UniProtKB/TrEMBL annotation:
<dbReference type="InterPro" id="IPR037123">
    <property type="entry name" value="PRibGlycinamide_synth_C_sf"/>
</dbReference>
<keyword id="KW-0460">Magnesium</keyword>
<protein>
    <recommendedName>
        <fullName>Phosphoribosylamine--glycine ligase</fullName>
        <ecNumber>6.3.4.13</ecNumber>
    </recommendedName>
</protein>
<dbReference type="GO" id="GO:0006189">
    <property type="term" value="P:'de novo' IMP biosynthetic process"/>
</dbReference>
<dbReference type="GO" id="GO:0004637">
    <property type="term" value="F:phosphoribosylamine-glycine ligase activity"/>
</dbReference>
<dbReference type="InterPro" id="IPR000115">
    <property type="entry name" value="PRibGlycinamide_synth"/>
</dbReference>
<keyword id="KW-0067">ATP-binding</keyword>
<dbReference type="InterPro" id="IPR020560">
    <property type="entry name" value="PRibGlycinamide_synth_C-dom"/>
</dbReference>
<dbReference type="Pfam" id="PF01071">
    <property type="entry name" value="GARS_A"/>
</dbReference>
<dbReference type="Pfam" id="PF02843">
    <property type="entry name" value="GARS_C"/>
</dbReference>
<dbReference type="InterPro" id="IPR011761">
    <property type="entry name" value="ATP-grasp"/>
</dbReference>
<dbReference type="InterPro" id="IPR020561">
    <property type="entry name" value="PRibGlycinamid_synth_ATP-grasp"/>
</dbReference>
<keyword id="KW-0658">Purine biosynthesis</keyword>
<comment type="pathway">
    <text>Purine metabolism; IMP biosynthesis via de novo pathway; N(1)-(5-phospho-D-ribosyl)glycinamide from 5-phospho-alpha-D-ribose 1-diphosphate: step 2/2.</text>
</comment>
<keyword id="KW-0547">Nucleotide-binding</keyword>
<keyword id="KW-0464">Manganese</keyword>
<dbReference type="GO" id="GO:0005524">
    <property type="term" value="F:ATP binding"/>
</dbReference>
Amino acid sequence: MGNTESVLLIGGGGREHAIAQALTADARCRLYACAENRNPGIAALSADFNSISATSVDAIVEYATTDPVDADLAIIGPESALEAGVADALDAAGVYTFGPTAETARIETDKAFQRQFMQSESIPGCPDFAVFEEIEAACAYIDETEHDLAVKPAGLTGGKGVRVIGDQVTESEAKSYLRESEYEQIVLEERLVGEEFTVQAFVANGELRITPAIQDHKRAYEGDTGPNTGGMGSYSDTTQTLPFMSAEEYTDAVAILEATVEALPAYKGVLYGQFMLTSDGPRVIEFNARFGDPEAMNTLPILETSLLDIMRAAQHDESLPALSFSNQATVCKYAVPEGYPTDPHSGTKITVDEESAESVRVYYASVDSREDGLYTTTSRAFAVVGIADSIATAESQAETALSTVADGLRVRHDVGTPSLLQRRIEHMDAIREE
Ligand code: AMP
Ligand code: GLY
Protein backbone atom coordinates (compact mmCIF):
# COMPACT_ATOMS: atom_id res chain seq x y z
CA MET A 1 0.00 0.00 0.00
CA GLY A 2 2.87 2.37 -0.72
CA ASN A 3 3.50 4.75 2.14
CA THR A 4 0.14 4.33 3.81
CA GLU A 5 -0.17 3.23 7.41
CA SER A 6 -3.15 1.21 8.62
CA VAL A 7 -4.91 2.59 11.69
CA LEU A 8 -7.95 1.02 13.32
CA LEU A 9 -10.62 3.26 14.86
CA ILE A 10 -13.06 1.73 17.34
CA GLY A 11 -16.45 3.40 17.79
CA GLY A 12 -19.11 4.94 15.56
CA GLY A 13 -20.37 8.23 17.05
CA GLY A 14 -19.82 11.91 16.32
CA ARG A 15 -16.61 11.87 18.35
CA GLU A 16 -15.25 9.01 16.24
CA HIS A 17 -16.27 10.76 13.00
CA ALA A 18 -14.13 13.70 14.16
CA ILE A 19 -11.25 11.33 14.99
CA ALA A 20 -11.61 9.71 11.55
CA GLN A 21 -11.44 13.09 9.88
CA ALA A 22 -8.39 14.15 11.88
CA LEU A 23 -6.56 10.91 11.09
CA THR A 24 -7.36 10.88 7.39
CA ALA A 25 -6.37 14.54 7.03
CA ASP A 26 -2.89 12.98 7.13
CA ALA A 27 -2.43 11.42 3.69
CA ARG A 28 -0.32 8.60 5.15
CA CYS A 29 -3.26 7.23 7.15
CA ARG A 30 -5.26 4.32 5.74
CA LEU A 31 -8.21 4.11 8.08
CA TYR A 32 -10.20 1.04 9.09
CA ALA A 33 -13.12 1.34 11.46
CA CYS A 34 -15.44 -0.82 13.46
CA ALA A 35 -18.61 -0.09 15.39
CA GLU A 36 -21.99 -1.70 15.78
CA ASN A 37 -23.78 1.13 13.98
CA ARG A 38 -22.60 2.01 10.51
CA ASN A 39 -21.61 5.67 10.65
CA PRO A 40 -21.83 6.97 7.06
CA GLY A 41 -19.29 9.72 7.75
CA ILE A 42 -16.67 7.32 9.08
CA ALA A 43 -17.45 4.74 6.40
CA ALA A 44 -16.81 7.35 3.69
CA LEU A 45 -13.35 8.07 5.14
CA SER A 46 -12.40 4.42 5.70
CA ALA A 47 -10.95 1.72 3.49
CA ASP A 48 -13.35 -0.64 5.24
CA PHE A 49 -16.00 -0.35 7.94
CA ASN A 50 -16.83 -3.49 9.88
CA SER A 51 -19.99 -3.80 11.97
CA ILE A 52 -18.34 -5.12 15.12
CA SER A 53 -19.53 -3.83 18.47
CA ALA A 54 -16.96 -1.68 20.33
CA THR A 55 -17.00 -4.18 23.22
CA SER A 56 -16.50 -7.38 21.17
CA VAL A 57 -12.89 -7.75 22.20
CA ASP A 58 -11.99 -10.93 20.32
CA ALA A 59 -13.69 -9.88 17.09
CA ILE A 60 -11.88 -6.52 17.19
CA VAL A 61 -8.48 -8.17 17.69
CA GLU A 62 -9.18 -10.61 14.87
CA TYR A 63 -10.21 -7.77 12.54
CA ALA A 64 -7.23 -5.60 13.52
CA THR A 65 -4.62 -8.30 12.98
CA THR A 66 -5.77 -9.91 9.75
CA ASP A 67 -5.65 -8.93 6.12
CA PRO A 68 -6.53 -6.35 4.84
CA VAL A 69 -6.34 -4.33 8.07
CA ASP A 70 -3.07 -5.60 9.60
CA ALA A 71 -2.85 -2.51 11.78
CA ASP A 72 -0.10 -1.82 14.29
CA LEU A 73 -1.91 1.25 15.63
CA ALA A 74 -5.45 1.77 16.98
CA ILE A 75 -7.50 4.42 18.74
CA ILE A 76 -10.55 3.89 20.92
CA GLY A 77 -13.45 6.35 21.07
CA PRO A 78 -15.98 5.02 23.60
CA GLU A 79 -15.49 4.26 27.29
CA SER A 80 -17.40 0.98 26.93
CA ALA A 81 -14.53 -0.39 24.81
CA LEU A 82 -11.95 0.73 27.38
CA GLU A 83 -13.90 -0.92 30.17
CA ALA A 84 -14.20 -4.14 28.13
CA GLY A 85 -10.39 -4.30 27.82
CA VAL A 86 -10.10 -3.62 24.09
CA ALA A 87 -6.86 -1.66 24.62
CA ASP A 88 -5.36 -4.49 26.72
CA ALA A 89 -6.21 -7.10 24.09
CA LEU A 90 -5.02 -5.05 21.11
CA ASP A 91 -1.76 -4.11 22.88
CA ALA A 92 -1.19 -7.80 23.69
CA ALA A 93 -1.75 -8.64 20.02
CA GLY A 94 0.91 -6.11 18.95
CA VAL A 95 -1.48 -3.31 17.96
CA TYR A 96 -0.45 -0.24 19.96
CA THR A 97 -3.66 1.33 21.16
CA PHE A 98 -4.04 4.99 22.01
CA GLY A 99 -6.36 4.45 24.93
CA PRO A 100 -5.77 3.19 28.48
CA THR A 101 -5.97 -0.37 29.75
CA ALA A 102 -9.17 -1.41 31.54
CA GLU A 103 -7.40 -1.08 34.89
CA THR A 104 -6.19 2.47 34.18
CA ALA A 105 -9.54 3.45 32.62
CA ARG A 106 -11.11 2.88 36.04
CA ILE A 107 -10.36 6.54 36.54
CA GLU A 108 -13.51 6.95 34.44
CA THR A 109 -15.35 3.65 34.69
CA ASP A 110 -15.39 3.45 38.51
CA LYS A 111 -16.31 6.72 40.21
CA ALA A 112 -15.56 5.30 43.66
CA PHE A 113 -12.06 4.32 42.54
CA GLN A 114 -11.64 7.75 40.93
CA ARG A 115 -12.37 9.64 44.16
CA GLN A 116 -10.30 7.27 46.31
CA PHE A 117 -7.43 7.61 43.83
CA MET A 118 -7.61 11.42 43.98
CA GLN A 119 -7.63 11.30 47.76
CA SER A 120 -4.78 8.82 48.16
CA GLU A 121 -2.61 10.60 45.57
CA SER A 122 -3.44 14.05 47.01
CA ILE A 123 -4.62 15.31 43.63
CA PRO A 124 -6.02 18.80 44.08
CA GLY A 125 -9.66 19.64 43.37
CA CYS A 126 -11.34 16.57 44.91
CA PRO A 127 -14.72 17.27 46.57
CA ASP A 128 -15.64 15.67 49.92
CA PHE A 129 -17.14 12.27 49.21
CA ALA A 130 -18.31 9.00 50.72
CA VAL A 131 -18.82 5.59 49.10
CA PHE A 132 -21.72 3.25 49.94
CA GLU A 133 -22.68 -0.32 49.10
CA GLU A 134 -25.89 -0.20 51.15
CA ILE A 135 -28.71 1.96 49.81
CA GLU A 136 -30.16 2.67 53.28
CA ALA A 137 -26.77 3.80 54.58
CA ALA A 138 -26.53 6.18 51.63
CA CYS A 139 -30.04 7.51 52.37
CA ALA A 140 -29.10 8.03 56.04
CA TYR A 141 -26.00 9.98 54.93
CA ILE A 142 -28.24 12.20 52.76
CA ASP A 143 -30.45 12.85 55.83
CA GLU A 144 -27.48 13.63 58.09
CA THR A 145 -25.57 15.88 55.70
CA GLU A 146 -26.34 19.58 55.98
CA HIS A 147 -25.16 20.64 52.53
CA ASP A 148 -26.44 19.46 49.14
CA LEU A 149 -24.94 16.34 47.63
CA ALA A 150 -24.41 14.87 44.16
CA VAL A 151 -25.61 11.26 43.96
CA LYS A 152 -23.55 9.12 41.59
CA PRO A 153 -23.74 5.46 40.65
CA ALA A 154 -20.12 4.23 40.68
CA GLY A 155 -20.32 2.53 37.27
CA LEU A 156 -20.82 3.84 33.73
CA THR A 157 -24.25 5.33 32.96
CA GLY A 158 -23.62 7.24 29.73
CA GLY A 159 -23.60 10.52 31.67
CA LYS A 160 -27.21 10.01 32.72
CA GLY A 161 -26.95 8.42 36.20
CA VAL A 162 -26.03 11.43 38.35
CA ARG A 163 -28.69 13.31 40.37
CA VAL A 164 -27.74 16.60 42.01
CA ILE A 165 -29.72 17.50 45.13
CA GLY A 166 -30.85 21.11 45.16
CA ASP A 167 -30.49 21.33 41.38
CA GLN A 168 -32.21 18.41 39.64
CA VAL A 169 -33.86 16.67 42.59
CA THR A 170 -34.96 17.15 46.19
CA GLU A 171 -33.49 15.05 49.02
CA SER A 172 -36.52 12.80 49.05
CA GLU A 173 -36.44 12.34 45.25
CA ALA A 174 -32.75 11.43 45.51
CA LYS A 175 -33.55 8.77 48.11
CA SER A 176 -36.42 7.37 46.00
CA TYR A 177 -34.06 7.27 43.01
CA LEU A 178 -31.54 5.25 45.02
CA ARG A 179 -34.19 2.91 46.39
CA GLU A 180 -35.69 2.29 42.93
CA SER A 181 -32.39 1.73 41.12
CA GLU A 182 -30.26 -1.29 41.77
CA TYR A 183 -26.82 0.25 41.78
CA GLU A 184 -24.21 -1.81 43.61
CA GLN A 185 -22.10 1.12 44.69
CA ILE A 186 -22.98 4.77 45.17
CA VAL A 187 -20.75 7.80 45.57
CA LEU A 188 -22.23 10.74 47.48
CA GLU A 189 -20.23 13.91 47.20
CA GLU A 190 -20.30 17.58 47.92
CA ARG A 191 -22.37 19.50 45.39
CA LEU A 192 -20.06 21.84 43.51
CA VAL A 193 -21.51 25.14 42.34
CA GLY A 194 -20.13 27.19 39.48
CA GLU A 195 -19.54 26.82 35.74
CA GLU A 196 -18.52 23.52 34.19
CA PHE A 197 -15.77 23.13 31.64
CA THR A 198 -13.65 20.43 30.02
CA VAL A 199 -9.91 20.24 29.38
CA GLN A 200 -8.61 17.29 27.38
CA ALA A 201 -4.96 16.23 27.08
CA PHE A 202 -3.06 13.80 24.90
CA VAL A 203 -1.07 11.60 27.27
CA ALA A 204 1.71 9.04 26.83
CA ASN A 205 5.02 8.10 28.42
CA GLY A 206 4.32 10.28 31.46
CA GLU A 207 3.88 13.40 29.32
CA LEU A 208 0.83 15.42 28.40
CA ARG A 209 -0.17 17.92 25.72
CA ILE A 210 -3.12 20.10 26.59
CA THR A 211 -5.94 21.39 24.41
CA PRO A 212 -8.24 24.43 24.77
CA ALA A 213 -11.03 24.49 27.37
CA ILE A 214 -14.52 23.66 26.15
CA GLN A 215 -17.95 24.04 27.70
CA ASP A 216 -20.42 21.24 27.04
CA HIS A 217 -24.17 21.48 27.70
CA LYS A 218 -25.42 18.32 29.39
CA ARG A 219 -29.02 19.34 30.05
CA ALA A 220 -31.53 18.40 27.36
CA TYR A 221 -33.35 21.72 27.00
CA GLU A 222 -32.55 25.36 26.52
CA GLY A 223 -31.66 27.39 29.60
CA ASP A 224 -29.98 24.29 31.14
CA THR A 225 -33.24 22.59 32.05
CA GLY A 226 -34.45 19.00 31.67
CA PRO A 227 -32.66 15.70 32.16
CA ASN A 228 -28.94 15.13 31.64
CA THR A 229 -27.89 13.85 28.22
CA GLY A 230 -24.65 12.63 26.68
CA GLY A 231 -24.08 16.31 25.71
CA MET A 232 -26.19 18.59 23.49
CA GLY A 233 -23.49 20.95 22.23
CA SER A 234 -20.30 22.71 23.18
CA TYR A 235 -18.12 25.67 22.36
CA SER A 236 -14.52 26.80 22.60
CA ASP A 237 -12.91 30.22 22.20
CA THR A 238 -10.03 31.54 20.11
CA THR A 239 -7.74 31.18 23.14
CA GLN A 240 -7.30 28.25 25.52
CA THR A 241 -9.71 29.74 28.06
CA LEU A 242 -13.45 30.43 28.02
CA PRO A 243 -15.17 33.83 28.43
CA PHE A 244 -15.99 33.20 32.12
CA MET A 245 -12.52 31.91 33.03
CA SER A 246 -9.16 33.53 33.76
CA ALA A 247 -5.87 32.24 32.36
CA GLU A 248 -4.87 31.33 35.92
CA GLU A 249 -8.00 29.24 36.41
CA TYR A 250 -7.23 27.34 33.21
CA THR A 251 -3.66 26.77 34.42
CA ASP A 252 -5.00 25.45 37.74
CA ALA A 253 -7.13 22.90 35.86
CA VAL A 254 -4.10 21.86 33.79
CA ALA A 255 -2.11 21.41 37.04
CA ILE A 256 -4.77 18.90 38.17
CA LEU A 257 -4.32 16.94 34.93
CA GLU A 258 -0.54 17.07 35.37
CA ALA A 259 -0.81 15.70 38.92
CA THR A 260 -3.08 12.94 37.62
CA VAL A 261 -0.64 11.90 34.91
CA GLU A 262 2.20 11.94 37.42
CA ALA A 263 0.21 9.52 39.58
CA LEU A 264 -0.59 7.34 36.54
CA PRO A 265 2.74 7.11 34.67
CA ALA A 266 1.52 4.25 32.45
CA TYR A 267 -1.49 6.21 31.20
CA LYS A 268 -1.83 6.46 27.43
CA GLY A 269 -4.59 8.04 25.36
CA VAL A 270 -6.72 11.08 25.98
CA LEU A 271 -7.30 12.21 29.55
CA TYR A 272 -10.42 14.31 29.90
CA GLY A 273 -10.93 16.48 32.96
CA GLN A 274 -14.45 17.67 33.68
CA PHE A 275 -14.17 20.63 36.04
CA MET A 276 -16.47 22.88 38.00
CA LEU A 277 -15.07 26.39 38.24
CA THR A 278 -16.04 27.34 41.79
CA SER A 279 -15.25 30.25 44.09
CA ASP A 280 -12.23 28.14 45.13
CA GLY A 281 -11.05 27.60 41.56
CA PRO A 282 -11.43 24.44 39.45
CA ARG A 283 -12.66 21.29 41.22
CA VAL A 284 -12.96 17.89 39.54
CA ILE A 285 -16.42 16.61 38.61
CA GLU A 286 -14.97 13.60 36.88
CA PHE A 287 -12.21 12.26 34.69
CA ASN A 288 -12.86 10.49 31.43
CA ALA A 289 -10.35 8.20 29.78
CA ARG A 290 -11.10 9.30 26.20
CA PHE A 291 -12.14 12.28 24.11
CA GLY A 292 -15.45 13.86 25.04
CA ASP A 293 -18.40 13.61 22.75
CA PRO A 294 -19.13 16.38 21.68
CA GLU A 295 -15.81 17.93 22.80
CA ALA A 296 -13.72 15.98 20.23
CA MET A 297 -15.65 17.86 17.55
CA ASN A 298 -14.47 21.21 18.97
CA THR A 299 -10.86 20.13 19.43
CA LEU A 300 -9.89 18.05 16.43
CA PRO A 301 -11.01 20.39 13.60
CA ILE A 302 -8.74 23.16 14.91
CA LEU A 303 -5.79 20.87 15.69
CA GLU A 304 -3.10 21.51 13.09
CA THR A 305 -0.70 18.86 14.41
CA SER A 306 -1.18 15.45 12.80
CA LEU A 307 -3.11 13.10 15.11
CA LEU A 308 -1.21 10.25 13.44
CA ASP A 309 2.11 11.86 14.50
CA ILE A 310 0.88 12.19 18.10
CA MET A 311 -0.13 8.52 18.20
CA ARG A 312 3.10 7.35 16.53
CA ALA A 313 5.20 9.30 19.05
CA ALA A 314 3.23 7.69 21.88
CA GLN A 315 3.75 4.26 20.31
CA HIS A 316 7.51 4.71 19.93
CA ASP A 317 8.13 6.12 23.41
CA GLU A 318 9.08 9.44 21.88
CA SER A 319 8.27 12.84 23.27
CA LEU A 320 4.81 13.92 22.07
CA PRO A 321 4.91 16.70 19.47
CA ALA A 322 4.04 20.23 20.62
CA LEU A 323 0.46 20.93 19.56
CA SER A 324 -0.53 23.65 17.18
CA PHE A 325 -4.11 24.96 16.95
CA SER A 326 -5.68 27.30 14.41
CA ASN A 327 -6.82 29.66 17.22
CA GLN A 328 -10.41 29.73 15.99
CA ALA A 329 -13.57 29.54 18.05
CA THR A 330 -15.88 26.54 17.59
CA VAL A 331 -19.55 25.95 18.30
CA CYS A 332 -20.91 22.42 18.09
CA LYS A 333 -24.64 21.67 18.17
CA TYR A 334 -26.18 18.22 18.15
CA ALA A 335 -29.46 17.42 16.41
CA VAL A 336 -31.23 14.79 18.49
CA PRO A 337 -34.52 12.95 18.02
CA GLU A 338 -37.61 14.52 19.55
CA GLY A 339 -38.10 13.14 23.07
CA TYR A 340 -34.34 12.46 23.61
CA PRO A 341 -33.11 11.32 26.11
CA THR A 342 -36.13 10.01 28.05
CA ASP A 343 -38.53 8.98 25.27
CA PRO A 344 -36.70 9.36 21.95
CA HIS A 345 -38.67 8.93 18.72
CA SER A 346 -36.72 7.17 15.98
CA GLY A 347 -37.47 7.09 12.25
CA THR A 348 -37.33 10.81 11.41
CA LYS A 349 -35.75 11.52 8.03
CA ILE A 350 -32.55 13.51 8.34
CA THR A 351 -31.71 16.27 5.92
CA VAL A 352 -28.25 17.72 6.15
CA ASP A 353 -27.52 20.40 3.62
CA GLU A 354 -23.79 19.77 3.40
CA GLU A 355 -23.52 21.98 0.28
CA SER A 356 -24.86 25.17 1.84
CA ALA A 357 -23.06 24.30 5.04
CA GLU A 358 -19.61 24.81 3.57
CA SER A 359 -18.16 26.77 6.45
CA VAL A 360 -19.16 24.13 8.99
CA ARG A 361 -18.21 20.54 9.69
CA VAL A 362 -20.95 17.93 9.84
CA TYR A 363 -20.38 14.86 12.00
CA TYR A 364 -22.71 11.89 11.96
CA ALA A 365 -23.47 10.05 15.19
CA SER A 366 -26.28 7.49 15.37
CA VAL A 367 -28.25 7.26 12.13
CA ASP A 368 -30.12 4.52 10.37
CA SER A 369 -29.12 4.31 6.68
CA ARG A 370 -32.05 3.26 4.51
CA GLU A 371 -32.33 3.15 0.73
CA ASP A 372 -33.95 6.56 0.52
CA GLY A 373 -31.72 8.29 3.03
CA LEU A 374 -30.76 8.63 6.66
CA TYR A 375 -33.19 8.36 9.59
CA THR A 376 -32.88 8.99 13.31
CA THR A 377 -32.40 6.22 15.85
CA THR A 378 -33.03 6.78 19.57
CA SER A 379 -29.63 8.47 20.14
CA ARG A 380 -28.05 11.75 19.09
CA ALA A 381 -28.23 11.93 15.28
CA PHE A 382 -25.61 14.35 13.97
CA ALA A 383 -23.72 17.48 14.94
CA VAL A 384 -22.66 20.59 13.09
CA VAL A 385 -19.61 22.62 14.11
CA GLY A 386 -19.14 26.24 13.16
CA ILE A 387 -15.49 27.36 13.12
CA ALA A 388 -14.72 31.09 12.98
CA ASP A 389 -12.83 34.04 14.42
CA SER A 390 -15.35 34.48 17.24
CA ILE A 391 -17.79 32.31 19.17
CA ALA A 392 -20.65 34.48 17.89
CA THR A 393 -19.76 33.90 14.22
CA ALA A 394 -19.19 30.18 14.77
CA GLU A 395 -22.60 30.04 16.47
CA SER A 396 -24.41 31.71 13.56
CA GLN A 397 -22.65 29.40 11.09
CA ALA A 398 -23.83 26.36 13.03
CA GLU A 399 -27.39 27.72 13.09
CA THR A 400 -27.39 28.40 9.33
CA ALA A 401 -26.31 24.83 8.71
CA LEU A 402 -29.10 23.58 10.98
CA SER A 403 -31.82 25.65 9.32
CA THR A 404 -32.87 22.76 7.08
CA VAL A 405 -33.25 20.34 9.98
CA ALA A 406 -36.63 18.63 9.80
CA ASP A 407 -39.42 18.41 12.35
CA GLY A 408 -38.82 15.52 14.67
CA LEU A 409 -35.29 16.66 15.51
CA ARG A 410 -34.39 18.96 18.35
CA VAL A 411 -31.42 21.29 18.81
CA ARG A 412 -30.34 23.41 21.77
CA HIS A 413 -30.32 26.70 19.89
CA ASP A 414 -28.93 28.54 22.92
CA VAL A 415 -25.50 26.80 22.87
CA GLY A 416 -22.82 29.41 22.13
CA THR A 417 -25.22 32.38 21.83
CA PRO A 418 -24.06 35.78 23.12
CA SER A 419 -26.92 35.86 25.65
CA LEU A 420 -26.03 32.49 27.15
CA LEU A 421 -22.34 33.43 27.28
CA GLN A 422 -23.25 36.65 29.07
CA ARG A 423 -25.27 34.67 31.61
CA ARG A 424 -22.28 32.39 32.23
CA ILE A 425 -20.00 35.39 32.85
CA GLU A 426 -22.51 36.99 35.24
CA HIS A 427 -23.06 33.68 37.04
CA MET A 428 -19.32 33.22 37.57
CA ASP A 429 -18.88 36.86 38.68
CA ALA A 430 -21.64 36.37 41.27
CA ILE A 431 -20.01 33.17 42.54
CA ARG A 432 -16.62 34.86 42.89
CA GLU A 433 -18.21 37.69 44.91
CA GLU A 434 -19.98 35.38 47.36
P1 AMP B 1 -20.81 12.92 35.49
O1 AMP B 1 -21.53 11.72 34.97
O2 AMP B 1 -19.95 12.67 36.66
O3 AMP B 1 -20.19 13.75 34.38
O4 AMP B 1 -21.96 13.89 36.03
C1 AMP B 1 -22.96 14.37 35.17
C2 AMP B 1 -23.27 15.80 35.55
O5 AMP B 1 -23.72 15.86 36.90
C3 AMP B 1 -22.07 16.73 35.50
O6 AMP B 1 -21.82 17.22 34.23
C4 AMP B 1 -22.51 17.81 36.45
O7 AMP B 1 -23.40 18.70 35.81
C5 AMP B 1 -23.28 17.06 37.50
N1 AMP B 1 -22.41 16.76 38.65
C6 AMP B 1 -21.65 15.67 38.85
N2 AMP B 1 -20.98 15.75 40.02
C7 AMP B 1 -21.34 16.92 40.58
C8 AMP B 1 -20.99 17.60 41.81
N3 AMP B 1 -20.16 17.06 42.70
N4 AMP B 1 -21.56 18.81 42.02
C9 AMP B 1 -22.42 19.36 41.14
N5 AMP B 1 -22.78 18.79 39.99
C10 AMP B 1 -22.24 17.58 39.70
N1 GLY C 1 -19.30 15.34 26.89
C1 GLY C 1 -19.30 14.47 27.98
C2 GLY C 1 -18.67 13.17 27.74
O1 GLY C 1 -18.16 12.86 26.68
O2 GLY C 1 -18.67 12.37 28.66
